[in-house]
UniProtKB/TrEMBL annotation:
Primary location: membrane
Name of this protein: ABC transporter permease
Membrane spanning residue stretches: 30-52, 90-110, 122-143, 324-345, 366-384, 424-445
Region annotation Disordered: where it falls in the sequence: 1-22
Subcellular location: Cell membrane
GO cellular component, one term: plasma membrane
Entry annotated with the keyword Transmembrane: yes
Organism: Streptomyces cellostaticus
Keyword rRNA-binding annotated: no
């Protein structure tokens, strides 16, 4: 047997093994492709094809039959509504992720020191289980401008009235030709000059009997009292007799006084005395010098009640919707940052405490730098999320201010399907939104790969 024959016999098993290995790898790749194929098919049908179709559709007109090139992209940046949507989207991207990341960090650090930390985390995370549709309806009701419906305005009105008070009779007004003339500021003044020793009756209408204060009593006895030599007396009453009858401009026995009404005595146009009417509507200015006076009912008696804040007005609608978004996503940020916080090396924190560092120094110089990768992931994830926000804006913002609150996602829908019926321009907006989201997605993927290494 020659040496060549021996070498070939030794090599043949190796070659056969290599061939078997190649066949095994090909079989494994084939099986892997068979398993991956349904996912690739769905990815192509639900992601790749819609993206390519939208890019192509953006170069055609509203009907989709005429090629217009880049006209849709030019029109997009000339449309005031689109420019406002871009501005609002920028506000969302700058404000919402930063606030959420900051709130999540603060809450994650504080929760560590709470005894019932798990229950607290559960409460904060519960809004994540609520759909954006339901959350939008909840906050649409909470932001209602009617204090009887909107809980936020009810709280604001309660605090305002507790400190600033409220008008006594916002619907009251004087009858024409009954001795009271309206002032420029909404007040009422007596038309004739009064001197000490006079009694004046000031009749008002426009107040429902059921709206009178509980302690209101008939004004007739007070109207019959005579004024002293150095005083001006009077009565402010509701010039309306329940059940009918009575005479306008005269205090009838069944007519009620208006208690709590502010009254001023003016001399030469300047207030010299002020008082508040009693339960029967009576008032008295005593110790007056001789001369002519005018009695005034200040405008504060008739000012409309404070109605709260217009949360969904053109000025505050975007911050209000961002507030609803914070309510939903704060728990998400807190849980992710809390997980990163739990993985921090405790020896570094304890060493800092032993060296005399206080909690603020530990938080600023150790906790935050060590959490930087987690904070970045949370921030970038939220940036991607807010660029696509649609439900909250569409549901919370009322129709008249929809344009003031619109973002790119809602503008894309409104242009395409919400009345604009221009799917060419809507596709261009979709492409713009995709181009804005891609950099944040690439950054997030790179950070995930870096963390896996």
């Amino acid at each position: 047997m020659t040496a060549t024959t021996l070498v070939s016999e030794k090599a043949s098993p190796r070659a056969a093994g290599a061939a078997r290995g190649r066949r095994s790898r090909r079989r494994a790749r084939t099986v892997a492709l068979l398993f991956v194929f349904p996912a690739l098919l769905l990815l192509g049908a639900l992601v790749v094809y819609p993206v390519l179709f939208s890019v192509g559709r953006s170069f055609f007109d509203a009907s989709g039959t005429r090629f217009v090139g880049g006209d849709n992209y030019t029109e997009m940046f000339r449309d005031p509504a689109t420019l406002k949507a871009i501005r609002n989207t920028t506000i969302w991207v700058v404000v919402a992720p930063a606030l959420l990341t900051g709130l999540g960090l603060i809450l994650a650090v504080l929760v560590e020191k709470v005894r019932w930390a798990t229950a607290f985390k559960l409460l904060l995370f519960m809004p994540m289980a609520v759909s954006f549709l339901a959350a939008g309806i909840i906050f649409r009701l909470a932001y209602d401008e009617d204090p009887d419906k909107g809980v936020l305005d009810a709280a604001v009105v309660s605090v305002h009235d507790a400190f600033a008070g409220t008008s006594s009779y916002p619907t009251a007004r004087a009858r024409d030709g009954q001795g009271l003339t309206p002032g420029r500021d909404g007040s009422y003044l007596t038309g004739a000059d009064l001197s000490p020793g006079h009694t004046v009756t000031l009749g008002l209408v426009g107040v429902l009997p059921k709206d009178l204060p509980k302690g209101a009593s008939p004004a007739y006895p007070a109207a019959a009292r005579k004024a002293g030599a150095d005083e001006v007396r009077g009565v402010v009453y509701l010039d309306f007799t329940p059940g009918g009858g009575g005479k306008q401009g005269r205090v009838d026995p069944k007519e009620s006084g208006l208690p709590g009404m502010k009254v001023q005595a003016l001399r030469d146009g300047k207030p010299v005395a002020s008082t508040t009417t009693g339960s029967d509507g009576s008032f008295r200015f005593s110790g007056l010098d001789r001369g002519s006076y005018t009695v005034k009912l200040p405008a504060s008696n008739f000012a409309p009640p404070y109605q709260g804040i217009s949360w969904l007005g053109p000025t505050l609608v975007t911050p209000a919707i961002i507030g609803a978004y914070l309510w939903i996503w704060t728990g998400f940020a807190m849980v992710l940052i809390g997980a990163g916080l739990a993985a921090l090396p405790r020896d570094a924190l304890e060493a800092a405490r032993m060296d005399g560092a206080n909690e603020w120094q530990i938080f600023r110089r150790i906790t935050v730098p060590l959490l930087a990768p987690v904070l970045t992931v949370v921030f970038v994830t939220l940036v991607i999320n807010v660029m696509k926000v649609f439900d909250l804006v569409y549901i919370i913002a009322p129709g008249p201010v929809q344009e003031d609150a619109t973002v790119l996602a809602t503008q894309m829908w409104l242009v395409s399907f919400g009345g604009g019926n221009n799917q060419g321009l809507g596709s261009a907006l979709g492409v713009l939104l995709l181009l804005l989201v891609i950099p944040a997605m690439v950054l997030n993927v790179r950070r995930f790969r870096r963390s896996q290494r």
